[in-house]
Amino acid sequence: MQRQPTMLMVPGHGATAAGPSRRLAEFAGERAVAMDIPRLIEGIDVGPRSPLARAQELAAEAWSARSTWFLTNGASQANRMAAIAVGSRGRGSAVLMQRSAHSSFTDGVLVADLFPFFMMPSVDTARGIHHGVTAAQVEEHLAEARAAGEDVGAVYIVSPSYFGAVADVAAISRVTRAAGVPLIVDGAWGAHFGFHESFPESPTRLGADIVISSTHKLGGSFTQSAMIHLGEGPFADEFAPLLERAFMLTQSTSESALLLGSLDIARATLEDGEGFAESVAAVAAFRERLRQDGRFPIVSDSFGEFSDIVADDPMRVSIDVTSTGLTGHAVRSLLGERFAVYLEIATVSAVVAFVGPGKLPDLDRLFAALDTLHAEHGGGGLMGLDAIPPLPRPGALRVRPREAYFGTHRTVDAQDAIGRVSVDALSAYPPGIPNVLPGEEITRETVEFLRAVAAAPIGYVRGALDPAVAQLRVLAAE
């Protein structure tokens, strides 16, 4: 028998729309207010056999994992958990990581005091887009790290990329298993993988030991909700308690019941697969329409040119918009402002449209909007891409990232920063790969590259103190 509870606890709205909470109910709905309950409620999240525990078990079964944790601080929390678990392992503080890793994993490297060795992903120089790494690269870099006397505690890769490029996780996992090193896969953009025959397989079934899953992105849960999966592998027993400790360190003590519940619903929806075939067909038809038109090349059509890419995500369409004469950032902005068409990602040369599995959005509307922008601004292609110089090699890592990040720093002119140690992370767009990380030496080539990108009409430098990169922050002790 359903009862209306009397809530004499947080949250202050009391799980009802009465009194001042009517405004909240008008905003989010009475059902959302009623479901927004606190932690430690009998029959919901208390005890080892609680509905919450069972929901996480079902998620682990769905993704073929040993264990799954529901997260309310996004995949960023999962990345930090993974890094902290590696740092807590006591078997080598070095981590071999893809250079284009998400900043939240770099945060974890700082917190856990890890020592990073980097692998450069392949780069589509024509569009300024980075992709992934190969099994051969991983094997080579593992050998180099060990030759340098480092005991590698984990390998970290990204698959799929923002643009849907999928790495050969199975081959990479064979390399890491042979080397006795756990493999972490940032699969944030592939939460739906493995739930339809047209989707690439989930990394949890391809040998990954830890998988980051940003379930809200294309898995269907509420924004900010995510999961981290512990794979069924040789490191599972060791990592289970380490990830649990990292979870306690990073998870909110006031978890949102709405976010947690949405993760369980997303799992059930993915397993059901309702409408997935129709979505896949609709996106495929839209891609073919763009190909037939010819003005808006599909970025993933060139994936065959890169040895690190073995598949692509059928639920996103990466569109080269240089023929409009506008940057991808400008196209994305105009699509929203003028046509109420909102896209997830933009780069200098492209935009990316995501379609959630089972959804059938109005893709004709997107095509018509692109057609209008091309008619208004297009014809000559995007100017300025050729002004971006080649990527410089990163400077030597002279100080552990954590020591540099928390060290005493000073601000100097860019030219005076050459040869000094950076305390910041700087990434030039395009292509968005970090050029300098805390603890690395700032080289002359890097300064020239960053300033050239900043001066180009289509470039900017994330993390810079000023738009022109006239000044940089360096470690005062160096």
TrEMBL record:
**CC cofactor:** pyridoxal 5'-phosphate
SUPFAM superfamilies for the chain: Ornithine decarboxylase C-terminal domain, PLP-dependent transferases
Q: Give any Pfam family that matches.
A: OKR_DC_1_C
Residue ranges constituting the Orn/Lys/Arg decarboxylase C-terminal domain according to the UniProt record: 408-454
InterPro entries associated with the record: Orn/Lys/Arg_deCO2ase_major_dom, Orn_Lys_Arg_decarboxylase-I, Prn/Lys/Arg_de-COase_C, Prn/Lys/Arg_de-COase_C_sf, PyrdxlP-dep_Trfase, PyrdxlP-dep_Trfase_major
**Domain of life, per lineage:** Bacteria
UniProt keyword annotations, A-Z: Decarboxylase, Lyase, Pyridoxal phosphate
Every copy of the Orn/Lys/Arg decarboxylases family 1 pyridoxal-P attachment site domain together lies at 3-291
Sequence similarity = Belongs to the Orn/Lys/Arg decarboxylase class-I family.
- Matching PANTHER family: ARGININE DECARBOXYLASE
Protein name as it appears in the record: Amino acid decarboxylase
Q: Which organism is it from?
A: Leucobacter chromiireducens subsp. chromiireducens
